Amino acid sequence: MTTSLLALGAAVFYGAADFLGGIVTRRATTVATVLTTQGAGLLMLLVCTPLMLDRTLDRHDVVFAMLAGLTGSIGVALLYKALAIGPMSVVAPVTAVCAVIVPLVVGLLQGEAIAAPAALGVVMAIAAVGLLGMTPAGTATAAADVARGVRVALASGVAVGGFLVALGQTSTAAGLWPLAVSRAVSVTLFTAMALATRQPLVVPRPAMAAALACGGLDMVANALYLVAVRQGQLSLVATLASLYPASTVMLARIVLGERLGRWQQLGVASAIAAIVLIVRHG
């Protein structure tokens, strides 16, 4: 139960962070958005350094943490780009479908066994994020923008799935240090990219508060996921964490007025049913 709650908490925070990231990217470049949000998360971790001094990293942890930083930064950059192009209620679920399939397959290949009711929950979770991504009738968004956003979102989902897998391979003894390493990799990568392309290093002042909040929420989500995946099965924990589009869609509905259609309402119901099945039988 505790593991499931941690994974669901990660989903809530991931969804809120993605919503803010999409908002910021509409006001700034993707590079500046990622660099600012990732930098904010790294600063948050540095503040917590005294709590991590009794933890140690070995070579295995460093390798997978660096891999998580590479795949995660690519995934987040593509996601923010997609969120700025298409409607959030479509883009976020598309990314999540790909993001959950990658760790699910890896977990099964590693020999994880899933009880039949929990497996049904996984199927319902994947169906839920698909339903959440169905555009309500009458949406005014241009079809070309939706199609382009979906293509970027698919690539983002594969990268995010790689991030979830890589982070899950780090050891418990490493504590939160893998997050610090992965975040340092992404900050370094996007700093070099910004300097090479002569793009701004930070977002404009009006978007700064949202960017800092996005980075903080994302880091909290990563920490919750990391603790959860070390206690439970990769396939099930990643599935629950990948339900984050539910909070993104709800925030888009409340703040931006994006209409929640019947299929999306069914998606929310399917997500709830999936949570019950996975929590009870996972």
What does this structure look like?
The protein has 282 residues and is mainly alpha-helical. It has one domain (2-281). It has helices at residues 2-25, 30-47, 59-85, 88-109, 116-132, 143-168, 177-197, 205-231, 234-241, 245-256, 262-281.
Brief summary:
By secondary structure, the protein is mainly α. Helices cover 79% and strands 0% of the residues. The chain has one domain.
> In what range is the share of β-strand residues?
under 5%
Structural class by SSE content: mainly alpha
Roughly what percent helix? over 70%
Tally of helical segments: 11
Which spans have pLDDT < 50 for at least 5 consecutive residues? none
**Using only CA atoms, what is the Rg?**
18 Å
Number of domains: 1
How far is it from the N-terminal to the C-terminal residue, by CA?
Answer: 9 Å
Q: Give the ordered list of helices and strands.
A: HHHHHHHHHHH
State the assembly state of the protein chains.
Answer: single chain
The major beta sheet can be summarized as: none
Mean pLDDT across the residues is 84
Shape: globular
Query: Can you count the beta strands?
Result: 0
